[in-house]
Amino acid sequence: MYYANKQPLLTIVVPVYRSRDTLEELVRRIMTACHENHIEIVMVEDCGRDGSWDVIEALAAREPVVRGIRLSRNFGQHAATICGMAFARGQWVATIDDDLEQPPEKLPDLLRKARQEGHDLVYGVYPDRTHATWRNITSHAARMLFKLAIPTLNDAYTSMRVIRGDLARELKRFESPFPFIDGYLSWLTSRCACVPVNHQPRRLGSSNYTFGKLFSHTLNIFVSFSDAPLKLASNAGLFFSLIGLSALAVILIGRLMGAITAVGYASVMAAILAVGGIQLLVLGIFGEYIGRINFKTSRKPLYLVAHDTQAGERP
């Protein structure tokens, strides 16, 4: 199953965050499901501080197929996944969550479809999701926004994927401070497909994605990948400018004809508040983009590795 000097057929990347109780079973099920293939498992611990790293170190010491990487701080799921891809040696790279909601037994099906049909990317998609109702609603809304921002995005995407290895390793070249793996992949290839998988209910703990985190993630990705807010601000400014000029023309004509003797306080205040609100909205949108330009030009690393169970074999 594992030969140190031979390139694996498949690398399974697992971003880990506060999941110490599921890691043993996850690795066991991956190894059972993929025993016919030459594999490696790269587990990236995103500094959850719950003891997950201790479990990963024990697994790496016991199983030659397991490699553990610990980040210096919490960088987020997408950054941790890209880190794992950078270390992956496989001809193909799979990604799967650490919470057992995605069945690792389906990974061979995704790999088989990619190899037999010539796809660069295969997603494991859920006919039904076991998340809470609010999570399903917000996820659906986020997908609609992402599709608006990235028209080429496969809106059936999930975090369970099989990707051609050289393509997956290219993701580390993207330098956005707000990474979005599936957005990057939609730019790199259109040769993708889907395989239905059952979404399993969470057996331990609760999701690490709160409403606040989901909202922040959606906003960051939408602004980072789309200029739609800027176009909206421009169109709103043009629209209200035309209204203002039209109102000014009506007032001047009325004044010259004697129909208007004094400007009403209510209409003046309404106009000031409306225009002021639009100005603040436009300034806020510009500020979001300027902030992201500042983040990008600062060239902060997407992730920083603190520990590696196979130190000395870095990409």
Structural class: alpha/beta
CATH homologous superfamily (4th level) name of the largest domain: Spore Coat Polysaccharide Biosynthesis Protein SpsA, Chain A
CATH topology of the largest domain: Spore Coat Polysaccharide Biosynthesis Protein SpsA, Chain A
Radius of gyration: 25 Å
Largest sheet geometry: 8 strands, mixed
Characterization of the model:
With 315 residues, the chain is an alpha/beta fold. It folds into 2 domains: 224 residues, Alpha-Beta Complex (Spore Coat Polysaccharide Biosynthesis Protein SpsA, Chain A), CATH 3.90.550; 70 residues. It is 48% helix and 13% strand. It is built from 10 helices and 8 strands. An 8-stranded mixed β-sheet has the order 7-5-6-4-1-2-3-8, sandwiched between helices. Helix 2 links the parallel strand 2 and strand 3. The longest helix is centred in the C-terminal third of the chain and has 33 residues. It is elongated. The model has no long low-confidence stretch (mean pLDDT 81).
